[in-house]
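User: For my dataset I need records formatted as: sequence, then structure tokens, nothing else. Please produce one.
Assistant:
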Amino acid sequence: MANVTVIGAQWGDEGKGKIVDWLASRADAVVRFQGGHNAGHTLVVGEKVYKLSLLPSGIVTGTLSLIGNGVVLDPWALKAEIEKLEGQGVEINGENFAIADNCPLILPLHRDLDGLREQAAGKGKIGTTGRGIGPAYEDKVGRRAIRVCDLDHLDDLAPQIDRLCAHHDALRAGFGQDPIDRDQLIADLREIAPFVLQYAQPVWKRLKKVRKAGARILFEGAQGVLLDVDHGTYPFVTSSNTVSGTAASGSGLGPNSTGFVLGIVKAYTTRVGSGPFPTELEDADGQRLGERGHEFGTVTGRQRRCGWFDAVLVRQTCAISGVTGIALTKLDVLDGFETVKICTGYRLDGKILDYLPSHAGDQARVEPIYEEMDGWQATTAGARSYADLPAQAIKYIQRVQELIETPVALVSTSPEREDTILVRDPFMD
């Protein structure tokens, strides 16, 4: 049996929650390997709706769910999310949930800095969620982070607090803010420590045991490849690597463990926040996509920008992330369009490009080259086999996989777990 790594192959918000939930019901362990509580997954199980930001999607069905070392952890957000899910009847304990003890923590000072920077940025705003993710990753790389394991050694934390405050107090002074209240920080950590430590352990060791037993592991990515700090639309990106290769370093298992790479791809394109978006539609079609697709961020509630499917971008993200097959989601949102368009290339300064250039200015100036296809008037909602789909919808799917040079492994036709057309089982690769 193969392991499976799930990533978003656009700007995030591709409907990963439903796909991960569907796969998690067949996995033995689910691992989050990067990002923080800026990720948002909405799961629909029967009549219940679960909104997750930090917890792996497997937790809802009781599947062993692990937060890997590549994640930055806000302990207060974790507590609130666990309490909310427990209020919905989800059981969370040391048997089905664990946190890597070498996870860096997101502290209140990180949230403060995130907000101060964004307010001062003017036209340079990146569109951060303001949850402290970026500053926490900066402190990790700067070797001044407080980690989960440090919560068990708070009496010995003074040298690390010195290092942390030396950096942050200087930044805060530049924004006209008071220095960090060290006593309050320690008091806050002391209060939350018992809650977090009950789940803390060497996750790499737990995973090694799971893998040795021949269990199926699902690696759950957050955001999307186009938000990757190296390969995305920099600087309008997140603060971590969102590509599939991060599953290895962010979990503590080697690269030969990540298995089938499933790229989640929406049948059109959306993004939240600032940054280039070549196929963005600021017309009735764009509004229709947003309304039909209920395009609002799970975490932020922000309205998503909408546009036609961009095959150039998805071909690029599939190549960068070594995608084995894609899950095409929200096909039903395109129902009823007289014609649909797919971007097949870009024009830039008189040249034709088959990739997105790296420079932000060039990314903002590329003009999409469209291929137009007939739409379909029949509904695809709830289809569970190709036989249930209109002929033009099948032609659309076939054209998408030709242009992105990656096969379709499954098609999602509604938020319901069962409304899925399985072409190739990722766990049977």
